[in-house]
């Protein structure tokens, strides 16, 4: 299953369509429920063989049906099992009603459950389909389980978590382990969902991959090399520095040059054949004192930049790290509108008063702009999108990418990379210690290196984010930006 479906992510609505299509194709829906419940029971026995009791909390829908099957299988294995239900059992319908009828265990209302030492909770209340805040009796149970520090195995998704956005709907279980089916949902990867899911296991319950793929938009996936590695330039004996691209990074004024140097060094380490720092003349000596392999060129203003750009070999630029905000930054971006540009930090903030000015500069042709905003910078460029609470982080990145005709790197613990054509990747390999001063400057340089080597904007951004995370893992806890540069390696 993993080889066939890869890193595909399905929204809850898409997964519901998959379930319906599987049933329409003649696959018995109760058989799928049986397989799902059996997978949950298997995980519970494997992970907690010493549990004194499995407390199975069942909701009023098919997620609860999975729980009744799991309870039955656990009891048949000889485990001690207690079942608790939400709602009126007489109102169960379809496969859930059948699963309850075939589970001989007595069920009690969920609000009488009291966690005890030795319990393992199996959360089969809501799963991924919840679209409202959890009801009060479920909130109370979640609070008790959390306070008692009883381990939780979630069925599909911890109850209280939105499977589309990863947001908490009032409150949610914190699972030690989650068993989901066929594919993961965006909520398994987006924060805070990723933390609340614990380890995630994807169980193949027997739906053919062709049905899963046919009901998926195919637009959302995890950011892994399978998404972009085929576009990376291959290392050949005939390769030379000019074939590996020339990256230019703009430096700030004297006393504000370090960010550009880190960005440039990262670009060189990530595989760009040549890297030049374009610097104000008054910062030339300061930059020169710290550089060897990176070249320098004096560029004081937009007129000097325009003259330099007469050299058509200069195609890829990083603007923003330590550069300063204001008219000069906007003028430089305008001069670069026909080239490949990573706009970061000060470059983004310079357009906060009129983002449309930036978008108009890069509106034509294939996307050749990469924007790398963190949460605050995103709100400066896209205030209306950032304020729309109905949108998930993926939704926001997708809408922003289309508006800007740019690849968006919406940074954070769950960085989302989005393309104007609607594709989006969620990155998961970045360690928490990457949140340090200068880390974003290095990311901009890595993305610039892959743009310089010929990758399209979206794939260059995705590769850069992934390799930035890999460098962080190699550098280890306590890293500084200087440590991180040393661990940047091309893929």
UniProtKB/TrEMBL annotation:
Annotated positions binding (6S)-NADPHX: 62-66, 127-133, 156, 259, 322, 374, 441
Coiled coil: none
Cofactors required: Mg(2+); K(+)
Recorded superkingdom: Bacteria
Key words of the record: ATP-binding, Isomerase, Lyase, Metal-binding, Multifunctional enzyme, NAD, NADP, Nucleotide-binding, Potassium
Residues of the YjeF C-terminal domain: 224-491
Binding partners and assembly: Homotetramer.
Protein name (database record): Bifunctional NAD(P)H-hydrate repair enzyme
Lineage: Bacteria, Pseudomonadati, Pseudomonadota, Alphaproteobacteria, Hyphomicrobiales
């Amino acid at each position: 299953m993993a080889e066939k479906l890869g890193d595909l992510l399905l929204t809850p609505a898409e997964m519901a369509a998959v379930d319906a299509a599987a049933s329409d194709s003649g696959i018995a829906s109760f058989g799928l429920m049986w397989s799902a419940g059996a997978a949950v029971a298997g995980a519970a026995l494997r992970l907690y063989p010493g549990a004194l009791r499995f407390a199975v909390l069942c909701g009023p829908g098919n997620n609860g049906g999975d729980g009744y099957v799991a309870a039955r299988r656990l009891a048949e294995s000889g485990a001690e099992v207690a079942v608790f239900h939400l709602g009126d059992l007489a109102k169960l319908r379809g496969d859930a009603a059948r699963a309850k009828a075939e589970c001989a265990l007595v069920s009690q209302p969920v609000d009488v459950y009291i966690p005890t030492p030795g319990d393992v909770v199996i959360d089969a209340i809501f799963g991924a389909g919840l679209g409202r805040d959890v009801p009060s009796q479920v909130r109370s149970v979640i609070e008790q389980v959390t306070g008692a520090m009883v381990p939780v195995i979630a069925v599909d998704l911890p109850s209280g978590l939105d499977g589309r956005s990863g947001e908490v709907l009032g409150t949610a279980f914190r699972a030690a382990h989650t068993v989901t089916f066929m594919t993961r949902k965006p909520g398994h990867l987006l924060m805070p969902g990723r933390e609340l899911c614990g380890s995630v296991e994807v169980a193949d319950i027997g739906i053919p991959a062709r049905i899963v793929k046919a009901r998926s938009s195919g637009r959302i996936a995890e950011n892994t090399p399978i998404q972009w590695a085929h576009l990376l330039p291959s290392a050949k004996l005939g390769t030379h520095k000019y074939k590996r691209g020339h990256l230019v990074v703009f430096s700030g004024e004297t006393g504000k040059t370090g960010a550009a140097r880190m960005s440039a060094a990262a670009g060189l380490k990530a595989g760009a054949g040549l890297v030049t720092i374009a610097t104000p003349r008054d910062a030339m000596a300061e930059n020169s004192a710290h550089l060897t392999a990176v070249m320098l060129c004096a560029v004081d203003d937009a007129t000097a930049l325009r003259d330099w750009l007469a050299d058509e070999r200069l195609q890829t630029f990083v603007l923003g790290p330590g550069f300063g905000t204001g008219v000069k930054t906007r003028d430089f971006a305008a001069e670069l509108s026909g080239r490949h540009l990573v706009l970061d930090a000060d470059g983004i903030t310079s357009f906060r008063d009129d983002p449309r000015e930036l978008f108009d500069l890069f509106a034509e042709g294939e996307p050749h702009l990469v924007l790398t905003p963190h949460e605050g910078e995103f709100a400066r460029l896209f205030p209306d999108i950032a304020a729309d609470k109905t949108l998930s982080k993926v939704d926001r990145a997708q809408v922003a990418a289309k508006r800007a005709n740019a690849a968006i790197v919406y940074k954070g613990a769950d960085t989302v990379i989005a393309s104007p054509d609607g594709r989006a990747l969620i990155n998961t390999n970045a360690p928490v210690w990457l949140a340090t001063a200068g880390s974003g400057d290095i990311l901009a340089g890595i993305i610039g290196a892959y743009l310089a080597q010929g990758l399209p904007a979206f794939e260059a951004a995705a590769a850069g984010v992934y390799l930035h995370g890999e460098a962080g893992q190699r550098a280890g806890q306590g890293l500084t930006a200087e440590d991180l540069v040393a661990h940047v390696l091309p893929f």
